[in-house]
Amino acid sequence: MHIQESIIRILDDLPGAERRLADIVLSNISQLPIYSAHELAAMANVSAATAVRFFRRLGFSGFNAFRMAAREQMGDGAPFKRLSELDANTFRGDMTPFVSSDIQNITATFEAIAQSHLDKFVAQTLEAKRIWLVGFRNGQTLACYAHSLLQQLRPDVHLLVGTVAHLTEQMSDIQPGDLVLVMDFRRRSVLLPKVVDYVRSEGVQLAFLTDGLESSLVKNRDIAFVVKTRGEGLFDSHASTLSLINFIVSRIAVQAEATITKKLQKIESIHRSFNDLKSE
User: Fold this and answer.
1) Could you read off the pLDDT of 170-191 as tens digits, one per residue?
2) Do both 240 and 137 map to the same domain?
3) Does the global pTM surpass 0.90?
4) Among 39, 54, 160, 196, which has the minimal tally of Cβ within 10 Å of its Cβ?
5) Residue 35 DSSP one-character state
6) Looking at the domain assignment, is residue 229 inside a domain?
7) Are 223 and 121 in contact (CB under 8 A)?
C-alpha cells in the first residue's frame, strides 16, 4: 500500500499530535526521501516519540524503513527506464498477467475508497454552483472523460484546458461555491501545483484523483481518491481510474435520480431529433 493511502485510511482516527505530523507528511510527500525524522517532527512541532509512534502505526519498523519505502514509491515513471525491464514474451503470448494486473489495480482502488470522501464528493457535485475539471498529460485525457460523463448529469461543468493564456482566463471565473476536480498523477506538469494553489486561495473545494506517488498537493480538507496505476505495460495503466470515475458518476446519478433522469431523457430526445446515432 502506498504511503498516502495508508495515511488517508487512518487520518480521522489519529491523535492530535500524530495528525499534525500526518498533515506535514502529506504536504511534503514528493520530498519525503530528503527529510530526516527530526526535520519532519520539528515541522509538525511534535516529539520524537510521537514520530516513532506514527511511523509504526503506518506499519514501518522505524523511520529508515519509512524513508526507504518513500524512495521506492517515488519512481519517476520515465517509460524508457521501464522498457528495458519488460518481458517481451508477455506481449507475444499469454496476456493473462497484463489483464490480471489491471483487475488487481481496480480491486485495490475500490477497496481503498474512504466512504466519507465518497459521500462528500457526491454531495458537493450536486450542490456546487459549477464544477471544473483539470489535468495535464494523462490527467487531461482522464479529465475529459470525467467531463463527458458529468456534463450529462448537470449544467455548468467545465474543462480547464488549452494554452496558459486560455487557462488563466477560464480560472478567473472560479468562485467559492464551485468544485474543482484535479487529476494528479506522477510526471505531473509544473503548471498543476500553480493551478491548485490559485484555486485553494479562492476558498474553493478541491477533490483529487491521484496515484499517491506525488500527492503533495492534497491537503487536510480536500477530497481524495487514490487509484492504483502501476501495471505490466510500458506506461501506467488507468483502467482503475476510468472505472472509479464511472462508478462515482453512477453513484451521483442514483443519488439524484429524478432530476438526472429528466436531463438524460432530454439529451436522448435531442439525439432522436438529430437522428445522429445508429441503433445497431
Assistant:
1) 999 999 999 999 998 877 788 8
2) yes
3) no
4) 39
5) -
6) yes
7) yes
